[in-house]
Write a structure and sequence with these properties.
Shape: flat
Strand content: 15-25%
Oligomer: single chain
Largest sheet: 7 strands, antiparallel
CATH topology of the largest domain: Alpha-D-Glucose-1,6-Bisphosphate, Chain A, domain 4
Radius of gyration: 27 Å
Structural class: alpha+beta
Number of domains: 3
CATH class of the largest domain: Alpha Beta
Number of strands: 12
Helix content: 40-55%
Number of helices: 10
């Protein structure tokens, strides 16, 4: 009976005459994305498992084989290690004589523990002679000017699993789901649901880099959305970076005008047809990868946002969006928005669907009229 009720509710949701088509398209996109992520995770997990086994075998064999490393080879290994350990590797000079490492040049004090720990683990290093000049900051040292090298970040509170560990966890979740289904009981169904959840979560691709908003608003509303667009990342980014064309596919945006470099004035349509204005500035922009912005002080709706683009192996682009906003009057403002059917999540979903359609099919519907990509290019 419960299964029949659930099946009927699912069919009503997907076959709704008004929103069913968009819902089915969303479910289809999510399923395709899930299958792609699962296949990618399985491939990486198998490759990682093979590499780890091979590495363990080589490591075990090397314990019985003398490791003779030439001085030239050891110098190159150390220089590679410097790139992962210190902020200014170009400020250091390395020389090796029969396994004895001599370090000269300049280094930041905060980099010394990480550097010495890395060199101490390196095979072939017999002794380290430290003749480095230590600095608290780069200051006016000529060799320590320019952008610092990106060294290893501190370990997160929860360590990230390797692809092999994720694959093993997914396999364990699948076995748990099969065991639960074979029990033919409510407890078994619970175990099966738990196993499927663990397997699905393990096969989901982890984020490739940080997606935290440095200017997230306190006591605000936080929205996140991921959508896959069948278009290359450079094309998606060009359209995202063209803010003045946003009214063509965003139904509640009336106009966007450039005020100065990196600053745009937005005019939006609110409840009852009223209009509001605010100025937003671009905080960070990495071409074809990331775009982050925030409103300037005094905005009608304080908000901040970041969009990250991840190219897929299939030529499409996975778009990750995070918005944080604080409406006027706080929670009362949210309630008034609900009263006028201005649900931010629904508005975001609708605008992204129009954006996706415009990129994939060259046309969409916004402000109750058909918009073609040629109009955007002309604007």
């Amino acid at each position: 009976m419960l299964g029949g009720i659930g099946l009927g509710a699912g069919l009503m949701y997907l076959l709704d005459p008004d929103r069913g088509r968009r819902r089915r398209a969303t479910v289809r996109d999510q399923m395709v994305e899930m299958l792609h992520e699962a296949a990618d995770t399985i491939q990486k997990g198998v490759r990682d498992f093979n590499n780890r086994v091979f590495g363990r075998l080589i490591g075990a064999a090397s314990a019985f084989i003398p490791d003779k490393v030439g001085d030239d080879v050891l110098v190159e290994r150390i220089r590679t290690t410097l790139g992962h350990s210190v902020a200014y590797p170009q400020a250091m000079v390395v020389s090796v004589t029969e396994g004895q490492v001599n370090l000269t040049g300049h280094v930041l004090r905060e980099d010394i523990p990480r550097l010495m720990a890395a060199l101490g683990r390196m095979r072939g290093v017999r002794e380290i002679t430290d003749q480095l000049t230590v600095h608290e900051k780069a200051g006016e040292v000529p060799d320590m000017q320019g952008k610092p090298n990106r060294v290893s970040e501190p370990a997160p509170l929860l360590p990230r699993w390797s692809p092999a560990a994720r694959l093993g966890t997914a396999a364990a979740g699948g076995l748990l789901a099969l065991y639960g289904l074979r029990r033919h009981s409510f407890a078994g169904l619970g175990l099966a649901a738990m196993g499927l959840g663990v397997a699905a979560r393990s096969l989901k691709r982890p984020p490739s880099h940080s997606f935290a908003l440095g200017n997230q608003l306190r006591r605000g509303v936080d929205l996140q959305k991921t959508i896959t667009i069948d278009a290359p990342a450079d094309r998606v980014f060009r359209m995202l970076a063209n803010f003045e064309s946003f009214p063509l596919f965003m139904s509640h945006v009336h106009e966007v005008k450039k005020v100065e470099d990196g600053v745009y004035r937005w005019t939006v349509i609110g409840p009852g047809g009223a209009t509001g204005h605010w100025d937003a500035e671009i905080v960070r922009c990495v071409e074809d990868e990331l775009l982050e912005w925030k409103t300037r002080p005094g905005a009608m709706v304080d908000h901040a946002g970041v969009v990250r683009l991840d190219p897929t192996p299939y030529g499409s682009t996975r778009l990750h969006i995070r918005l944080s906003y604080r409406p006027p009057l706080g929670r009362l403002g949210i309630g008034m928005g609900d009263l006028f059917n201005l649900y931010p999540k629904h508005m975001l979903d609708k605008d992204l669907a129009c954006f996706k359609s415009l990129l994939e099919h060259g046309k969409t519907t916004a402000h109750h009229h058909r918009v073609h990509l040629s109009e955007m290019n002309a604007s």
